[in-house]
Design goal:
By secondary structure, this protein is of the alpha/beta class. 31% of the residues lie in helices and 24% in strands. The protein is globular, with a radius of gyration of 19 Å.
Length: 326
Amino acid sequence: MINLAVAHESWPIAGNFTISRGSKTTAEVVVVTLRQGEHTGRGECVPYPRYNETVEGVVASLEAARAGIEAGIDRRDIASLVVPRAARNALDCALWDLEAKRTGKPAWQLALLKQPHPLVTAFTLSLDTPEAMAEAAANAAHLPLLKLKLGREDDVKRLRLIRDAAPKCRLIVDANEGWTPKQLPELLAACAEVGVELVEQPLPANDDETLRSLKHGVTICADESAHDKAGLPGLVRKYAAINIKLDKTGGLTEALALAKAANELNMKIMVGCMLATSLAMAPAMLVAQFAHVIDLDGPLLLARDRNPGIRYDNSLMYPPTPDLWG
């Protein structure tokens, strides 16, 4: 028998966090804890309104599946029991953690992977005025990789001021579906001008056909358009890369399968996160070992993190210790 506990937690953000769809001051997460005898496994997810998910809905879906979970669920059964992808993620990661604790083998061994090594993550600059973002970039100019949240008027100005403020940083951009097909040529040209390496989801997921024929010099990465391996073929020739997030795939199991499928299609891999604690970053680090771009800075944007949490040395993040996850 497995004992299930589901908890909603609210973690304050350092200041506020703004993207093209709005702002927030807290990270709202749901934590699944599975206990079996003396062993405990945990997983964390972020219900995301963009996908019509709420904390209440995720908690309710897990409670509705309680009987099946506590009877002894297999990772392969999760999709048939739990509907919201975020809920599946927390449950799937908790099962990986529980198995690691029960067997005494780290999750990377259970997944037949190589031992994970430290990775350089992007550091995200929240969407703000061009001048405020340039100031934030200047303060972060010692970091190797900055991710710029864009998607409002004056994005070209933002790009130029940020590049002037942080001339040596690598830059990636996330528009969060905030641009239009009409704006796209000018904005991609500005990205190329300042040396942006990758642009995430410039267009709405339901209006991205322009990407099939548009000529540009920047890698375009699917985020809101990319979920699991079943949808991957439809992204070919529109996107050169995909952003894998465990809350979108429904857990580590599907994320690993998606990474393998993307590699087979010669698509670049980015591994990203929702705004969450180290407990959510830990399993994503296994997928990130295959990635070209890593964006797992969620804990760096919080006022405080879990203890123990992932160790960050500026942008260098270290694999989790077993007392955190896996």
